[in-house]
Structures are given as C-alpha cells and as structure tokens.
Amino acid sequence: MPRFFVEKISHPAILSPEESRHAVRALRLSAGDRVTVFDPRESWSGEIESTAGPVTVRLLERLAAPAIPRVIVAAAVPKGARLDWMIEKLAELGVSEFVPVRFARSVTEPGEGKRKRLEKIAVAAAKQSGAPVMKISPEKGVDQLPVDAILASPGSSDVVPPGGGCVVVGPEGGLTRAEESRFPRRCSLGPTILRIETAAVIAAARLLS
After folding, report:
1. What pLDDT is stored for residue 122 in this prediction?
2. 96, 46, 92, 107: which is closest to 70 by C-alpha?
C-alpha cells in the first residue's frame, strides 16, 4: 500500500503538493484507492477522497506502531554521499534518532541546510521501509552525550548488546583520550577498522536485534 508523509495528521489528511504530484502523476492513484498516511508520531490507513488540487485522504484506522527498540546513533559526520547513505540505511532499519556529534578530530560539520536535507532522506526511507520517521537532531558536542552510551571501539572485547540504547561512533581519526574516558561502556563491531557509516549501520542493527 502506498505510504505518504504529512507534517501532522489531520482528518481528512491533506497531502503536500509534492506528495500529491507523486500520488497522481507517478502512482496514478485516484479516488477510492487505499493508502497509508503517516507523520512523525502515528500512521493511518485511509482512502483517497479527491485528487482535485491537493490530494485529500479519508482516514479509516490508526495503525499500530512497529515493535522496534529505541535506538539512538550519535556519530561523527562522514563526507558527502556517505552521509546520505548512512542516514538512509539507519532510517530504513528503524533507528529512532540520529545525533551528529562534533569531536575534536571531526572533519565535517553539518549545517542547518544539510540537516533539512537529511530529514527529507529519513522521510523517504520511512516511506519505503514502513519504519517510523527517524529524528535528525541538531549537532551536539561529546560532553552532551549520555555517559551510559556505548562507544564503538575496535579495541574492546565486548560486543554490542541487543535491545536498544545509544551508540557512539567516532571520527575516522579516532577519539582523544579525554573523549574516550567519558564512555566506560565500549563494544567492538568486529576485527577490522570500519568507516563511520559502516560502523553506524552495523551497531544500529545489533542494538535493534
């Protein structure tokens, strides 16, 4: 069933011009077709009422949220398309929140414009996967992260435990000694050194299992 995002559920739901064009021109939907409409908090099944102007959808039934553990990925920001890929895959997996982190050895900082683009990627991934919309938080410093977060550390002998939580993925240059000392919980993602985006996706998948 096609899924459409709205900023906030209303009765009836009114699709944005972009979502309306996608419904009518790309998917060739018309009045009477069944769809799913969702916002960052809830999802509904519905039936298209009208395609004249913005598409309106009569909402029929609120859908139960997927049973997904709450996972937060707090990570350094990789460059260019690698960041887009990471956000897409984390959102597809069902990660609750992505927090870009500014480390001493970070090489990329996300601006507000970049965060808006990442939010669009997260919404598109939620439409495709059926997962809730992943929140893209403003950038934080290391000292703003919870001390009980799990640090992805190649030197650790422990593995990431399942069941949710917050995982920290540092920059490719590594953390400073002071940054490392903030996180007593450390886990390995395997015997090799991983790029930021690979580490983030693997860590999230293990927390979600």
Report:
1. 97
2. 96
